[in-house]
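Standup notes
- DV: blocked on the single-chain target, sequence here:
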Amino acid sequence: MTDLTTAGSALPRSLRQLDRDASQAIGERNFIRTIARVMSWTWVQWRRREIIRVLNRVDDHLLRDVGIERGSIEDFVDTLIERWR
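- DV (later): unblocked, structure below
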């Protein structure tokens, strides 16, 4: 039976460096994915607020023609955003 801690140190330096480089690349990819998710969430929230702001400016008659009640604008926008995803 081989001790795993000594097995790692028995590897050539170049292979140990490749292992470190691979784990660093994985960490960088995870960081980039996290940044992309944060940016996407930020954009969606900004867009949601903009749509709500515009719909709140529209008069009640036009909202009723479209089928939206003034009190349900946020629910309507949330449903719309969920369909986009």
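- Follow-up: The mean pLDDT is 82.
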